[in-house]
Specification:
Length: 301
């Protein structure tokens, strides 16, 4: 049996649409066990009956990876052990399922796929690399597609930088949140984002966090997506008032991310923010997360 633990991811980080992402300390842990035939998916000890396995990303990514490698697909029992990453909230839950399925299939086959090949397959399945790459390699990463290959570079994150995820109880599908985006942007908007994406990477790499607020500015996706997230603008203002140094829409939303300097400060910030959010519509909860520097782990159990 194979157990795979995958961190959540915060993609885009403001200006880095489909390119920049970081792995954080919320996890899904899933076990995969080959059985003679059939597909059994267990969540919280009970069979998952509300969807066909052929629509379940854990199963499809597992089975498609075996098929891609020419391995017959026998039966599999997939057991959810930890489900820390909330679904459709902008924290990379689909990427975590895809990564888990591919890594489990690879281990079942005795690891014939290299990390680069796993990244290629995961990116193809997800459609963009900014969640799957940090989920696999940990930390913050910049990922681009070049002649059909995915190239990435890791960016060091300052130790003092804390992420506070502000997560609502409602979901927003990535499909819907991509549909509202314009198909083309003005040169001024592209220049705006190129500068900020570069400033974000330079700030992280140098540890100079003084320009993080402008560095997380964006004109490519956040203005359009904020309209889909009721209450977001007020929550961003509250976070600023309570001392965050930058804020952005995590991935496609609806989670909002606040950056805070210092982990002790972040714990107090999250609890003050929770007090301010209590009673507001949307069921928002703030949680203090740390960067996950390791990425997905595979264990034989
Ligand atoms: N880069 C993606 C987007 C992340 O913004 O749509 C969400 O999966």
């Amino acid at each position: 049996m194979v157990r795979v633990r995958v961190p959540c991811t915060t993609a885009n980080m403001g200006p880095g649409f489909d390119v920049i992402g970081a792995a954080l300390s919320l996890y899904n842990e899933t076990e995969f066990e080959e059985i003679d035939k059939g597909v059994v998916i267990l969540e919280e000890g009970r069979p998952k009956v509300d969807e066909s396995p052929h629509k379940n990303l854990l199963y499809t990514s597992y089975a498609d990876t075996l098929k891609l490698c020419g391995r017959p697909v026998r039966g599999v029992r997939i057991t959810g052990r930890e489900r820390g990453i909330p679904i459709s909230r902008g924290l990379g839950s689909s990427a975590a399922c895809i990564v888990a399925g591919i890594l489990a299939a690879n281990r079942v086959m005795k690891d014939p796929l290299s990390l680069d090949e796993v990244i290629e397959i995961a990116t193809r399945m997800e459609g963009h690399p900014d969640n799957v790459v940090p989920a696999l390699v940990g930390g913050m990463a910049v990922s681009v597609s070049e002649h059909g290959r995915v190239l990435y570079a890791k960016v060091p994150l300052p130790e003092s930088l804390a992420f506070v995820a502000i997560i609502p109880s409602f979901r927003l599908s990535t499909k819907k949140a991509r549909k509202v985006l314009p198909r083309a942007h003005s040169r001024a908007d592209c220049v705006h984002n190129i500068g900020r994406a570069a400033l974000l990477v330079a700030s992280m790499a140098s540890g100079d966090l003084s320009k993080l607020r402008p560095a997380t500015g964006d004109r490519l996706h956040q203005p359009y997506r904020l309209r889909l997230i009721p209450g977001a603008q007020q929550i961003l203002s509250t976070a600023r008032e309570l001392g965050s140094i930058a804020e952005y829409v995590s991935g496609a939303g609806p989670t909002l991310m606040a950056l805070v300097e210092g982990h002790d400060k972040a714990a107090g910030f999250a609890s003050n923010l929770n007090a301010a959010l209590s009673g507001r519509p949307g069921g928002w909860k703030a949680i203090h997360l740390r960067p996950d520097l390791q990425g997905a782990r595979v264990l034989d159990v």
